[in-house]
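Retro notes
What went well: the complex prediction finally ran end to end.
Inputs used:
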Amino acid sequence: MGGNIGRSWNPLVKKLSLFSPLSDEDVGLLNALCAKEERFRAGEIIAVEGDAPRSAFVVTHGMAFRYRLLPDGRRQILTFLIPGDFFDLHVFLLKTMDHSISTIGPTRIAPVGRDVVIDIVAHHPRIGAALWWSAMQEEAMLRERIVALGRRSAPSCVAYLLCELVLRQRVIGMAGDHAIRLPLTQTDLADALGLTSVHVDRVLQRFRRDQLLTLEHRRLNLRNGGRLEAIAGFMPNYLQLNRTLAEVIRYLDELESARAGSGRLEDA
Amino acid sequence: MGGNIGRSWNPLVKKLSLFSPLSDEDVGLLNALCAKEERFRAGEIIAVEGDAPRSAFVVTHGMAFRYRLLPDGRRQILTFLIPGDFFDLHVFLLKTMDHSISTIGPTRIAPVGRDVVIDIVAHHPRIGAALWWSAMQEEAMLRERIVALGRRSAPSCVAYLLCELVLRQRVIGMAGDHAIRLPLTQTDLADALGLTSVHVDRVLQRFRRDQLLTLEHRRLNLRNGGRLEAIAGFMPNYLQLNRTLAEVIRYLDELESARAGSGRLEDA
DNA sequence: CGAGGAATTGAGTAGGTTCAAGGCCGGTGG
DNA sequence: CCACCGGCCTTGAACCTACTCAATTCCTCG
């Protein structure tokens, strides 16, 4: 599955491979990137709203989330970041962060300087394409969240978020078929879904009563994933996990030829 | 007001200039792009969820929106697209649309083929950078919407959306200080904010009673914009309209040198 | 073993929905 | 120019989902 150079399993490689066929060199580079990880303890704030962004990041272990705090102290969690997520690539374009980032449990994150990003995109088009695809995926998740917050009931929202987290962890090989790590507190779930922790609790209780899932020791066990997806109205296609190799290759070839023709290529 | 080729005012140029200093050649190219516009009548569907995306687009006149329909017929509007918005640049990366796009009033949109996009990015780094920045801006708007839907009251939501639309139109020179075109129906607003048209109506009535705004002939008049922003908790910084020339230039120079050094550059 | 955050419970409340009906345009055709 | 039509806005009353507040229990970690 993921492995390579050393002996290590690398969620970033695993994720990007889904989209783009990576060369051994590519894989080596990604492993090297992830090797320079920094450790953060639980609940540590990595980036603060208003700061200038410093670098891009790759999550290698643990979990983090983007969030905004409102003046009255309420919090809205925007996205969860799990191992394999390579984010804030646009670091040099934005002047200030419009949100903060914090860890959930103990987490390891590898900062990636802008020069490295530039090098990757310049010399490793397959990684570049895969990163771009992964940014599209994150944007699609934002849209999906808007649909959930806007038009779904609380049970449906909760179910949807759990389904998304399960699928994302499955993709990077971190999920058994029926269980994932879920270090989230009910308050975290609530803040991600625009609900109250009290209400999230009641929803989860009902899910348990209905034999849909169990939660214990920071693990989520799915007892009836199908039914949960039905409640969520979960349509995983928005994660765009259905790429075919042929198309990717064709795209990359186009990149190459355009590059030969002139100079640079690729972009948002 | 709308014209093109020759001497005309171009909302795309206006918008991108905010970020990146464009050469005359750049401007010419953008004008040419916008000249090949197609006309759509009110309520016409431009792209359907599930389809393969065909090309990128620039809105030149009118207004459109991205949306999703749920199985039960409910609708969630994701973003509004106004003149100057250049969107779906990632067209070649995604296999299927995860949402649909439709016009509101009569609207003109210029399709931009992938080869043109590639050419722009390859030969016009300033436009490329500006487009990338504009994509970041769209993503920031998605995040802001999540915050609104998740943690703000209905009046606050409505006020926020109006403030955003006013500011966006102002940026492209389509707003007087106190009035903008607003061809949206109350149902549209409701579907964008996860509310009911009935409730949106009551909120707007209250705004009018409080002398905050008036709505007539598809125009929104602000009577007390400051107070409206206060109700919205509107912090326009997320639109990243505060770039300074120096930074942009520095970034572009880096693009140039990296390009010289190798081949391509730039990316998601 | 103790402490503090997290989960749970209950009762009362409120913001927003639902349903249904009526009124107001603006556009269209005679 | 007027009458008609359909979509949109407006209104009211009943309802319900999810919130608030506060107290209690449960865990987990030190």
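What we learned: Residues 185-187, 197-198, 201-202, 204-205 of chain A lie near DNA strand C (CB under 10 Å from a C1').
What to try next: split runs per interface for comparison.
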